[in-house]
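Observation: inputs received (chain + flavin-adenine dinucleotide).
Thought: call the complex predictor directly.
Action: predict_structure
Action Input:
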Amino acid sequence: MLGTGVRMAQGRMVSRLDAEEPAWAAALPGYRPCTEAEHAGFPVAFWMSTPLIDMPRYLRYLRDRFESAGGRVELGTVRDLEEPDAPIVVDCAGLGARELAGDTQLRPVRGQHVMLENPGLTDFFVEGGGGTEWTSFFPHAERVVLGGVAGVDDWHTEPDPEQTEQILKRCIDIEPRLAGARLLGVEVGLRPGRPSIRVESQRRGDRLVVHNYGHGSVGIAMSWGCATEAADLCDRGRIGVDDLG
Ligand SMILES: Cc1cc2nc3c(=O)[nH]c(=O)nc-3n(C[C@H](O)[C@H](O)[C@H](O)COP(=O)(O)OP(=O)(O)OC[C@H]3O[C@@H](n4cnc5c(N)ncnc54)[C@H](O)[C@@H]3O)c2cc1C
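Observation:
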């Protein structure tokens, strides 16, 4: 892990909505079919390996890396994309781009996580296939992160106690070792939902604005790819070829 907060983890991916295992499943690293007991009642269930990220650690790592490269973080609210005194402005405001870029296609998709002390789990569990409620738990060194819910157009950032109970119940039904684990907290986040991700440059007077937002529920998975594309748009703008498409 080396302080990045990222480790390769194995876990089960399941679905109640699909009747058959997706064709791509067998190509995943660490793929193997689940035994009947491991299916836990889901029609589709298989093992796989994937990078698992402990987000607070990972964000600290990214910030250190940014500052070691000479970057500086200043906290504040930007009211207008023309406000920063810079030739290139990169708009990574997530849901805030609704106001900042006037993008009404952005919608909040509310999520809620329940954090428990880790009773010794190493494998993750995630239910895929869409829907507004599902079962997932992701073990990190000291804690396990339990989900999940998706509330489209729900702006509430307070934890919903009923959802906390339902998330706990669903996860404990799958992993009884979670019962009795100490509750560390409940967190709510608003995913920046949009029909498609926007990575695009725009000339505003003599300044270049590069938009990079609208990643919905996959912003971490997409982050390096989108950042590379946004950086490329900055470079093209800097040398004056941003109108080449
Ligand atoms: C419960 C939950 C689970 C998730 N699970 C996953 C997952 O498993 N995998 C995955 O890939 N993704 C996941 N996501 C999605 C992921 O967190 C987002 O896609 C990602 O955080 C989007 O990153 P972003 O930097 O574009 O926006 P954000 O993380 O929303 O950051 C935008 C930042 O801009 C700031 N800002 C906004 N407006 C202004 C302004 N006017 N001035 C100054 N600052 C401003 C905000 O305060 C914020 O700090 C999950 C999200 C939630 C809520």
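Thought: report the result.
Final Answer: The longest strand covers residues 107-117. Residues 77-78, 92-96, 100, 111, 113, 189, 191-192, 213, 215-221 surround flavin-adenine dinucleotide (CB under 6 Å).
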